[in-house]
Amino acid sequence: MKQGDIIIYGCVIIGAGVGLVFDAAFPGVLIGLGVGYVIQYLTKGEDG
Questions:
Q1: Each residue of 4-38: pLDDT tens digit?
Q2: Do 15 and 35 meet the contact criterion of CB atoms below 8 Å apart?
Q3: Is the pTM for the entire model greater than 0.90?
Q4: What residue intervals traverse the membrane (predicted)?
Q5: What is the rounded distance in angstroms from the CA atom of residue 35 to the CA atom of residue 31?
Q6: Angle at Cα 5 formed by Cα 44 and Cα 28, nearest 5°?
Q7: Residue 48 lies in a domain
Q8: Does 35 fall in a domain?
Q9: Do the domain assignments include residue 15?
Q10: Distance CA 31, CA 48 (A)
Q11: 8 Å CB contact between 18 and 28
């Protein structure tokens, strides 16, 4: 499993948890997924 995948999965889980607090788990998952892709892009570096 790649490091980028772990970042995305972690953000999805955190987003789902925050979404459950606000009774909106699915939108939380989608927001976490988007944030995960942005973080993966920003941490990619020049070699990737």
A1: 899 999 999 999 999 999 999 999 999 999 999 99
A2: yes
A3: no
A4: 6-39
A5: 6
A6: 105
A7: no
A8: yes
A9: yes
A10: 24
A11: yes
Cα–Cα distance, 41 to 34 (Å, whole number):
11
Band (3; pLDDT cuts 50, 70, 90): confident
Domain that holds residue 17: 3-42
* Tokens 């499993």 -> residue: 1
Tell me the two tokens of residue 28.
Answer: 């939380």
What is the spatial distance between Cα 23 and Cα 43, in angstroms, rounded to a whole number?
A: 31
Q: How many domains does the chain have?
A: 1
DSSP string covering the chain: --HHHHHHHHHHHHHHHHHHHTT-HHHHHHHHHHHHHHHHHHTS-S--
Q: Which two tokens stand for residue 1?
A: 């499993």
